[in-house]
Write a structure and sequence with these properties.
- By secondary structure, the chain is mainly beta.
- It has one domain: Immunoglobulin-like (Sandwich), CATH 2.60.40.
- Strands 3, 4, 6, 7, 9 and 10 form a six-stranded mixed sheet that branches. The protein has a four-stranded antiparallel sheet with strand order 2-1-5-8, with no helix packed on it.
- A hairpin with a 4-residue loop joins strand 1 and strand 2.
């Protein structure tokens, strides 16, 4: 067998894996805001995951906060899809009340919403979008902080999430 034949076999072996290309790298963080010093402190961060499966593969980190404590979420999403522009992609971020830590099913987004926002845009290769949003949680309980993609024209979507436990 020649080296060309071996290269062909290797290329065919990885070809099915390349059909499910990655689209987004999402760096999400939540932190306390020290208003006097204008600094972020006590940060928790999460990286990209994908659905399916429901709720993703990676366990979510947990950030503990106190009622009415000034908090901020920040995310940066980078398009890492290597095959061109992703058109009409929606990037949505939100903080919503949840039933329990680590729950796989998304909570109802029509009630218990603390803050939310979205962008619908064409993402060029290596294009980036992000936001930093200040918020407070006035009721003890469990909350989900999540950033997610929609309409990437793929068999999966990307997200990043952190559970918030407010006492």
């Amino acid at each position: 067998m020649g080296w060309r034949f071996l290269m062909l076999i290797a290329a065919l072996a990885v070809w099915p894996l390349s059909a499910q290309a990655e689209h987004a790298n999402i760096k999400l963080r939540v932190f306390r805001v020290d208003a006097e010093a204008s600094k972020a402190r006590d940060e928790t961060a999460a990286a990209s995951d994908e659905e399916p499966p429901l709720g993703g593969i990676n366990p979510r980190p947990v950030f503990r906060a106190k009622v009415n404590e000034p908090l901020a979420l920040q995310f940066i999403l980078t398009n890492i899809y290597p095959h061109g522009e992703l058109k009409n992609v929606t990037i949505r971020y939100f903080v919503v009340r949840a039933e329990k830590l680590g729950q796989k099913k998304l909570p109802a987004l029509d009630k218990g919403m603390v803050t939310e926002g979205r962008f619908t845009m064409n993402l060029k290769p290596k294009g980036r979008v992000g936001a930093r949003v200040a918020f407070r949680l006035d009721t003890p309980g469990v909350y989900l902080l999540r950033v997610q993609t929609k309409n990437t024209k793929s068999d999966h979507e990307h997200f990043s999430a952190i559970d918030l436990l407010v006492e």
